[in-house]
Every structure is written in C-alpha cells, then in structure tokens.
Design brief:
With 250 residues, this protein is of the alpha/beta class. It is 32% helix and 26% strand. Helix 1 crosses helix 2 and helix 3 crosses helix 8. The structure holds beta-D-glucopyranose. Beta-D-glucopyranose binds next to helix 3.
Length: 250
C-alpha cells in the first residue's frame, strides 16, 4: 500500500511516496524550503506543488511540528502562529482532493522508528523517542503503543524550555563543541529519565548520525540511550503509516 508521506518543518517540507508495509520510499524524496514565515497559505501551496510533482492521487499523511488533535493544530512553537486552530487535515484535502491524516512530527518519526528502526528491539518496553533539531520533539511508546502529543521539548530546565537548553539550534548558533553540547543534552535527558523512567531513550533527528561524537557525555541516565536508525526518513515514513492506519489522534 502506497501513501504520500509529508514532513512539515520550519526550514523544509519533505515528502515521498512510501510503501507502508516495508517503510521504503517508492520514489526519490522531494524537498522544498519552507517559505517564510510558513503560514497556512504558503505551506498549502508547497503541499500542492509536492502533490503535482508526484502526480499523487491517494492518501496523504503529514507530520506537523506542534500538538495536533483530530487534524487541528493546537500549538506552533517554531512555525507561524497563524496555524493555531487550523484544521490542517481538511485544508490538505481541500487543496489536493486527497484524504489526509495529520499528526505531530515527533509522533510520526517515532512510529516509524519503532516499526522499522532500532525501536524493534524495544517493542516490549517503555520507550521515549526524541527528535532533536531546532526544537526537541518527543513521543512515548508503551509496548509500541503511542502516547501522542507529549511536548517534552518545552519541559522547563532551570527556567528555560529544554529545547532552548539542548536543541541542535543551541549547538549551531553558539558553535558548541560536541562535548559542550553533549553535556547540555545530558542534563535534559537526566531529567526526562528521572521523571519518566523509560527503558530506552532513542535519539532521532539530524544529530542521531553524530552520536559517536557526543554519546560518551550522556552520563547519569539509567535508561539505555541509543541513536535512531532511520535518520531523516522517519518523519515521512511515520506520517504515511499513520494515514494508512487512520491514526487520528483524539
Ligand atoms: C514542538 C513539537 C515538535 C518539536 C520538533 C517543538 O517545538 O512544540 O510539537 O514535535 O518542536 O519539531
């Protein structure tokens, strides 16, 4: 079964048709930079271009960087605030004629990682999956079952959002060494570990492939901390899976 997966991010909108049984892309991924400031009209225009590019007619699954309930966006921390209150699922259907399911981007990436990535190893466990980019996204899994719309990137760590302490944006903006940034990430992970006691913490997002450079600084955490395997494919694959399984978060 093929579904068009779309990952809506603050800097790029990425998409590919996905075989949801294998998690493989059926065509080369297509990326369009998110037009600034990334308001609904602009993003929908990009989605229309993506649908044209693949000449797509089937189902669409989309991941969005905020809380999404029954297709409606409830928060938008790192994208235009005009999104709040918009029913993104129906807007996509109106714009493209395709049936659409929308969920949080980290929930989407976590679903894919649990089914097709390193998460397979932890399918009987309690897993905290994180996507670390500009923001920190989170998804909880209890024996592969998702608890949606957790927002651990906004948990307060010494008076600041966790994502403003240890997001990858902090590393890049301040040109931090892997060691310095790794220690910041450790502080955040220690708090997550202490509060939620997962069996494993899986780190996704762009920095997952650099794990060797900072993994040794992630100390003081009881959970097993491991990098994700699917890299930047996960958000697209998981959004497609959610559409196929009609995972409507309510
Ligand atoms: C948002 C989350 C999102 C994460 C990663 C955070 O700022 O609040 O909903 O999952 O960024 O994109």
């Amino acid at each position: 079964m093929a579904v068009l997966g779309i990952d809506i991010g603050g800097s790029g909108i990425k998409a590919a048709p996905v075989d949801v049984e294998t998690g493989e892309f059926l065509e080369k991924r297509y990326r369009i930079p998110t037009p600034s400031p990334g308001n609904p009209d602009q993003v929908l225009e990009v989605i229309r271009r993506i649908v044209d590019h693949f000449q797509w007619q089937g189902k669409i699954g989309a991941g969005f960087p905020g809380v999404v309930r029954r297709g409606v966006v409830e928060t938008a921390a790192n994208v235009s605030h005009e999104w709040v209150g918009q029913n993104l699922a129906s807007l996509i259907t109106d714009a493209t004629g395709c049936q659409a399911v929308v969920l949080n981007d980290a929930d989407a990436a976590g679903l894919a990682e649990m089914r097709f990535g390193i998460g397979k190893k932890f399918e009987d466990d309690h897993v905290l999956f994180l996507t670390i980019g500009t923001g920190i996204g989170s998804a909880f899994f209890v024996k592969r079952e998702l608890w949606p719309n957790s927002e651990l990137g906004h948990l307060q760590v010494r008076g600041k959002d966790a994502e403003h302490r240890a997001g990858d944006g902090v590393r890049q903006e301040n040109d931090l060494s892997w060691k310095k940034w790794g220690k910041k990430l450790a502080e955040v992970l220690q708090i997550y570990d202490y509060l939620f006691n997962p069996d494993a913490i899986i780190l996704g997002g762009g920095v997952s492939k650099k794990f060797k450079k900072y993994g040794q600084y992630l100390t003081g955490i009881q959970a097993e901390v491991i990098p994700a395997e699917l890299r930047n494919q996960a958000g697209i694959v998981g959004a497609a899976m959610a559409a196929e399984e009609s995972i409507i978060i309510d």
